[in-house]
Amino acid sequence: MNAPQRAERITLSHGGGGKAMRDLIDTVFAGAFAAQTEEDQARLSAAALAEPGATLAFTTDSFVVDPIEFRGGDIGTLAVCGTVNDLAVGGARPLWLSAAFILEEGLEIAVLRRIVASMRRAAERAGIRIVTGDTKVVTRGAADKVFVTTSGVGVIPPGRGLSARAIRPGDAALVNGPLGLHGAAILGARGEMALSSDIRSDCRPLGGVMAALMEAAPGLRAARDATRGGLAAALNEMAEAAGVSVRLEEAALPLSAEVRGMCEILGLDPLYLANEGTLVAFVPEAEAEPALAALHALPEGRNAAIIGRAVDRRTVPVYMATTFGGERIVDMLVGEQLPRIC
Questions:
Q1: Could you give the CA distance from residue 341 to residue 187 in angstroms, rounded to a whole number?
Q2: What gap in Å lies between CA 267 and CA 35, rounded to an integer?
Q3: In this structure, which CATH number among 3.40.190.10, 1.10.1740.10, 3.40.30.10, 3.90.650.10 belongs to the domain 164-329?
Q4: Residue 11: which pLDDT band, with cuts at 50, 70 and 90?
């Protein structure tokens, strides 16, 4: 039989279940992920669940970012880090990941290779294995280059019960880094506003940040990665779950000069810009300074800050003390400030 032809772009035959599809899987995906492709399922060791009281954590997410490559990452990095971080902020140790691809006819295979290579590097950095996946091809115009869906499995050790419901008045709110970098990077990459920007996405796994927090602050209540909807959405969700309010200090918010400048020019609020390597965590007041010191010792936490406190419930879940001496409500957005940022 003739060997399958090496194409330069995705064609409908790559989704047809034949030689072209087999060739795509073998030459693009299987080697990069070191995944077994002989069976239709991954076979996972049960040893990770052997510890009595351990809990299985499972999450899934889809990624449709535009553009698919940007400063600081691409859709592949985003797909791995986004799912890994959803596990990590719940106190789980990420173990396994699945990856499903919707490919548009005409996508350059060289671009797909770069995305897959980014996923491999991000998985290695996060300590997770990509063990199974799927590929579908749609006609030109039925998708936008490539969409990725990832599902992750991790294990929460016994006795670790992080939950937003555990937040209490007086708890300190910390973030590990500057706000709004991912949303600003995507906006800059689109070039729609004729702005020249060197802002890079903060796309990165947060397992190390969570490990440092849990060691320095054993009473850690809860954490949330501030992705779509930014810090504002994450805090509103957590405050509602806990039945408290959160009082932010505007002067304490870590914002880069570039993000601040872009927001001022375009009339955007950085509290609503997406982050992909920044989390917000609540710890008891007595553990706030040790937690902050632990974050400052990490590359991912150099700009960590205590940004506010949980307080007794008021009429709104989140509000902010401004630098002008007043207060303003920090509500959730009704719609999207920026669509397709992850």
A1: 8
A2: 46
A3: 3.90.650.10
A4: confident
Cβ count near 298 (within 10 Å): 16
- Residue reference for tokens 């709004």: 180
What is the DSSP code string of 27-70?
IIIIHHHT---SSSS----SGGG-STT-EEEEEEEEE--SSSEE
The domains of the chain are located at 12-38+52-156, 164-329
| 234 contacts 224 by C-beta, under 8 angstroms | yes
Q: Does 52 or 230 have the greater pLDDT score? A: 230
- Point out the least confidently predicted range of 46-55, 92-101, 245-254, 287-296: 46-55
Check whether 178 has a pLDDT greater than 50: yes
**37 and 25 in contact (C-beta within 8 Å)?**
yes
Q: Which two tokens stand for residue 9?
A: 């772009």
Could you report the per-residue pLDDT of 267-283, keeping only the tens digit for each? 899 999 999 999 999 99
Inter-CA distances, 307 with 206, 260, 288, Å: 19, 17, 11
Separation of alpha carbons 248 and 37, rounded Å: 50
**What CATH number should be reported for the domain whose range is 12-38+52-156?**
3.30.1330.10
Alpha-carbon distance values, 134 to 25, 102, 116, 148, 224 (Å): 9, 9, 13, 10, 29
Q: Once rounded to an integer, what is the mean pLDDT over residues 126-132?
A: 94
**Confidence class of residue 42 from pLDDT cuts 50, 70 and 90?**
confident
Helix, strand, coil percent content, the chain, rounded in steps of 5: 35, 25, 40
